[in-house]
Amino acid sequence: MLTGIEKFAGDQARSRAFSPKFLALNLAVVSAKLGTNFYTAMNEREVWGRLVESAIGAHLHNYKSSKVALHYWRERVEEVDFVLSHGAKLTAIEVKSGRNRGVRARLKKFTHLYETSKPLIVGTDDVPIEGFLLAAPDDWL
Fold first, then answer.
1. Which of 26, 27, 82, 141 lies in the 20 to 30 Å Cα band around 3?
2. Where are the alpha helices (DSSP H) in 1-141?
3. Domain coordinates in residue numbering, the chain
4. pLDDT tens for residues 52-101?
């Protein structure tokens, strides 16, 4: 129902030195904790954003592939929701269900630090949520 994903730090040893990001794998548990229903949540931007990010994270985590690793990235105040990696291939994923303020800057910082990476915004810009959930995560690498 709940898992932790490791921070992406460029190498395995450094990644394990940081606290994991907790990810709810069951949105029913998240919804029950929030004490709201689907229609109310859709109209509350912050609540809806958390649910959408959790759904995307659960989709990425539940995909069973030995090829793809799932991480998050944080550097001081900058954060990327999810990072998919396979060898030198990296995809930085930001999930947005509302405003996109600062998203491109965070992705640009990540792609500048990790030049083999590509940015992806799931939600309002690059890829619709439904399309992302219908694809296998390694399709985005």
1. 141
2. 12-15, 27-34, 38-43, 45-62, 103-113, 129-134
3. 2-140
4. 999 999 999 988 677 889 999 998 888 999 999 998 899 999 998 766 66
